[in-house]
From TrEMBL:
The keyword Mitochondrion does not apply. This is Intraflagellar transport protein 81 homolog. Its main location: cytoplasm. It is found in: Cytoplasm, Cytoskeleton, Cilium basal body. The gene is Ift81. The keyword Cytoplasm applies. Belongs to the IFT81 family. Keywords: Acetylation, Cell projection, Cilium, Cilium biogenesis/degradation, Coiled coil, Cytoplasm, Cytoskeleton, Differentiation, Phosphoprotein, Spermatogenesis. Gene3D superfamilies: Intraflagellar transport protein 81, N-terminal domain. Residues 137-253, 309-382, 483-563 form a coiled coil. GO terms for molecular function: tubulin binding.
């Protein structure tokens, strides 16, 4: 332990720390000072950790130091192998914990500085598996890993270049050699161009070579796309596996939850779904069916003319008038019982409308909640993909807002102080400038007067003489006072030293005894603490075992209770089914026809008979249609032939009429010629 402290003190007294410690002063440091010293050493290794520990919480300090020590691959010694004890010693500033850490850090400062620098870029961020399901996040993670590998290679090359020690002259020679090679290649390309231009169809051959190069590049891109699609398929399969695992976990969580809450949620969902299935959805379906029926009916009807529209409007007016007459008659024949019923009907309709509105609001709220949850998941995924921190909870956000407000208030106050000081500084600067201008003007006037009188420089010489004499007198007075004060102070110090020696002699004796007692008590405390830690560890082990046992018993109790409730529900459902079966049997064997008609068997029997009769009638109708089908087709063929015959006769008649008219016109023309 003494050798360790000696090494620590020597390292701290050297560059870059320059602490000027000795073994006694270092051993007498308080826990807070030890922690600050450790933080300074870590800050020398990694500049981000050069902070004042008084400005942060002890838990934050311990977490920061543990993270950096983990990155630097520090392993606690055997005496504090337990991580919890090591963490506790680091929080409290225990010498048994901090001294080995300082000894380990100070012996390999340069190596650890390089390791901390590399850790800034090579410590991989752990992205949760559920976020890697997103293709964008997976691509960013892949790019991040590629950049990390590139940084590793560049750092290795940098270190190799450092070791190789290439000189600037060699680099210049390499550059000049490469420039010469470049010129040679350019000349060779020119010669090849001239040779190619003499060949026939060189443009076509160049075009074919270019197409070949393009096709090869396309082949490479297609191969790359194929590889990317394979990787996407692999990622998709991984996402599917993770989703299946999450599904199993969710099912396990649901199975392990309390039965009361599950039953309550199920009852609420059953009530809501039963309302939707039994009331809301059938009503909407009925309205949709009605609207569809009217639309089909409207489509099946022929196109309506203006006269049809006028007739419909008149019919609507007549029906409206009849409705108004009926309403007037009802108002005239008003009865209180009808008013009560109408009031109840209105209340029932109002309640039903409210119920429908609340159901719609609940459905909209559920949809909005699901969309907001999706947005939150997307934002969390984007935040993790961009390297952001986790989302703050409500309490953490409140603490952050309170700290931000206090800092904002302090910032505003400081800014006001800075503004006041700036304003005052401007005023003083302006005052100084004005006074300097006045002094320069006065000096110029005085010099002008001295030149007129023929004694230029007299004022400056007089001021210098006065200043020198004043300084000499002040120095003489200070020397005399200093000598007197020094003699008096020496006398006082001698007297005080003698008095302090006489007064401190018994205190020093008592202090020696107290130091011995303190060492004994410290040793006893360390022994008691070790005994306490061992007892606490044993009790913690027993407590954890008891907690596991209690947890297992609670899970078993919850499982038994869930089985009991499930069996109870099955029993109730079976009782309800049995009761319905008894009622059905009672109605079926009842001698009263009215009761027997209510039985489901009778109802289904009646419906079956009606359907059988309907099927029988349809079959008879089908038989009649089949028997008369041939005759009807023959008759239709005869009518078609008759129609063709009549059409032919009509055409012949028209042709005959046209020929008769032409002959008549010819005869009239011959008669006219004879007359002429």
């Amino acid at each position: 332990m003494g050798d360790q402290m000696q090494v620590i003190v020597e390292k701290l007294n050297q560059e870059p720390f320059k602490k000027s410690y000795n073994l006694i002063s270092f051993d007498s440091l308080e826990p807070l000072q030890l922690l600050q010293l450790l933080s300074d050493v870590l800050g020398e290794i990694d500049p981000k950790h050069a902070v004042d520990i008084r400005e942060e919480l002890p838990e934050q300090t311990a977490k920061r130091m543990l993270n950096l020590l983990g990155i630097l691959k520090y392993k606690p010694p055997g005496t504090v192998s337990d991580l919890s004890a090591f963490r506790q010693g680091l929080v409290t500033g225990s010498k048994a914990v901090i001294h080995p850490v300082l000894h380990w850090l100070l012996q390999r400062t340069n190596e650890l500085r390089t390791r901390a620098y590399l850790a800034r870029f090579l410590v991989k961020l752990e992205v949760p598996a559920e976020f890697l399901q997103d293709d964008t996040v997976a691509d960013f993670n892949k790019q991040y890993e590629e950049l990390m590998e590139a940084f590793k290679n560049l750092h290795k090359e940098h270190e190799q270049l450092k070791i190789s020690g290439l000189s600037t002259a060699e680099i210049r020679r390499d550059i000049s050699a490469m420039e010469e090679e470049k010129d040679q290649l350019a000349k060779r390309v020119e010669r090849l161009k001239k040779r190619v231009e003499t060949v026939q169809n060189h443009q076509r051959m160049l075009e074919i070579a270019r197409q070949l190069r393009l096709e090869k590049e396309r082949e490479e891109s297609l191969a790359q796309q194929k590889q990317e699609q394979k990787s996407q398929l692999f990622h998709t399969e991984q996402r599917l596996q993770r989703a299946q695992v999450q599904l199993k976990e969710m099912q396990h969580m649901v199975a392990d939850s309390k039965p009361e809450s599950l039953m309550k949620k199920l009852e609420e969902e059953i009530n809501f779904n039963s309302y939707l299935v039994n009331e809301k959805i059938p009503r909407e379906m009925e309205s949709k069916k009605t609207s569809v029926y009217f639309l089909q009916k409207l489509v099946a009807e022929p196109a309506m003319t203006q006269a049809d529209l006028t007739a419909l409007e008149s019919e609507i007016e007549e029906v409206t008038a009849q409705m108004n007459q009926l309403i007037e008659k009802r108002i005239i024949t008003y009865e209180p019982t009808d008013s009560k019923f109408s009031m109840y009907r209105q209340q029932a309709s109002i309640i039903s409308r409210k119920k429908e509105a609340k159901a719609e609001e609940l459905q909209a709220a559920k949809e909005e909640m699901s969309s907001l949850e999706k947005q939150v998941e997307q934002k969390n995924t984007q935040a993790h993909g961009l390297g952001g921190s986790e989302v703050l909870t409500e309490d953490e956000f409140k603490q952050y807002v309170s700290r931000l407000r206090s800092k904002n208030t302090l910032y505003k106050r400081r800014r006001q102080e800075v503004a006041a000081i700036t304003a005052e500084y401007g005023i003083l600067q302006r005052t100084e400038e004005l006074l300097r201008q006045r002094h320069q003007a006065t000096q110029q006037q005085l010099q002008a007067i001295e030149e007129k009188k023929g004694i230029s420089g007299y004022s400056y010489t007089q001021e210098e003489l006065e200043r020198v004499s004043a300084v000499k007198s002040e120095m003489d007075e200070v020397k005399g006072q200093t000598l007197d004060n020094m003699s008096e102070m020496v006398k006082k110090l001698n007297a005080m030293v003698a008095e302090k020696k006489a007064s401190l002699a018994p205190v020093i004796k008592e202090l020696r005894q107290l130091r011995q007692t303190c060492q004994e008590l410290t040793q006893e405390r360390e022994e008691k603490k070790m005994h306490y830690d061992s007892c606490a560890a044993g009790l913690e082990t027993n407590r954890s075992a008891l907690e596991q046992e209690v947890k297992g018993l609670l899970e078993e109790c919850a499982q038994e209770e869930s089985n009991y409730r499930y069996i109870n529900c099955m029993k109730r459902s079976l009782e309800v089914q049995l009761q319905r079966a008894k009622e059905e049997m009672k109605a079926y064997v009842s001698p009263e026809p009215q009761e027997r008609r209510r039985a489901l068997r009778e109802q289904y029997t009646r419906i079956i008979l009606e359907q059988e009769n309907l099927g029988k009638k349809l079959r008879e109708k089908q038989k009649v249609v089949r028997e008369s089908h041939g005759l009807n087709m023959k008759q239709m063929k005869m009518w078609q032939d008759f129609e063709k015959l009549m059409e032919c006769k009509r055409e012949c008649f028209l042709k005959q009429q046209n020929q008769a008219a032409i002959g008549q016109i010819i005869q009239e023309g011959g008669k006219d010629r004879l007359v002429l």
